[in-house]
Amino acid sequence: MSAGGEPADREKPLPVDAVVFDLGNVLIRWDPVTAVAAAVGAERAAAFLSDEHFDFAAWNATHDAGRPWDESELAAIEAHPHLEDEIRGYRTHFALSLVEEIAGTVEILRELHAAQIPLLALTNWSAETFPVALERFDFLDLFEDIIVSGEEGVAKPDPEIFEILQERIGHLGSLDDCVFIDDSLANVAAAQESGLDAIHFTDPERLRHDLVLRGLPLRESGTLDHR
Ligand SMILES: [Mg+2]
Predict the structure, then answer these.
(1) What does the pLDDT read at residue 180?
(2) N or C, which end of the chain is more exposed by having fewer CB within 10 Å?
């Protein structure tokens, strides 16, 4: 690797029009088990999240796509009355599901912001619980725009959410010249279909490497082998 080490040159055009980040498990470590466990204990929480008859991921995705919590909780409890404490426990203790910021990715975000790279977030998140994150994580202020699926009524990987991104990013450029980062392979595939240069997030050092390869002005860690 030899691209780094030079100071950012303001005369140069930006290497990309914008960098678009997913939040959950890219910048914020999310694990529902800690929230549910606060209500029913670790053992029941683990059983609930792997329950064959209650698809937590699918249920939670409805909130991301805009379904009101009150309505979805009632429907779930009606169908699974023995799981009422688990179902209610998740929202009650939602803040605990936001385990921590992923420090290495936040560092990348801060470096990109310092280099004046336009930054957006595109997150699958309930409109009702997103304020918990806004309140807690000050790095969210570095984004010039955050598209929250729950507010739009449509979530990744639905192609419609990328049309919304195109509208919101239009003053900066087009999706073809934007980088998108997500830990979900389905979302990465959908983003590529929509024209984005999509990076599958696995860990911050790998992400740093992938962004340096794209010409973004980041410090190189030097710890990553060539893969
Ligand atoms: Mg994610």
Answers:
(1) 98
(2) C
Model pTM score: 0.91
- Residue 225: pLDDT band with limits 50, 70, 90: low
How far does residue 71's CA lie from ligand 1's centre (Å)? 24
Torsion of CA 91, 188, 215, 119, to 10 degrees: -30
Judged against a pLDDT cut of 60, whether residue 106 lies above it is answered with: yes
Q: Compute, in angstroms, the gap from residue 23 CA to the centroid of ligand 1.
A: 6
133 Cα to the center of ligand 1, angstroms: 14
Centre of ligand 1 to C-alpha 54, Å, is: 21
5 Cα–ligand 1 center, Å? 31
Alpha carbon of 177 to ligand 1 centroid (Å): 22
**Are 152 and 126 spatial neighbours (Cβ–Cβ below 8 Å)?**
no
CA 204 vs CA 27, 102, 214, 226: distances in Å: 9, 8, 15, 15
What's the gap in Å between 105 CA and the centre of ligand 1? 13
Q: In the CATH hierarchy, which fold is given to the domain comprising 18-27+102-213? A: Rossmann fold (3.40.50)
Residue 217: CB partners within 8 Å, gap ≥ 6? 8, 15, 111, 112, 115, 117
Say if CB 117 and CB 16 are below 8 A apart: yes
Gap between the Cα atoms of 216 and 227, Å rounded: 19
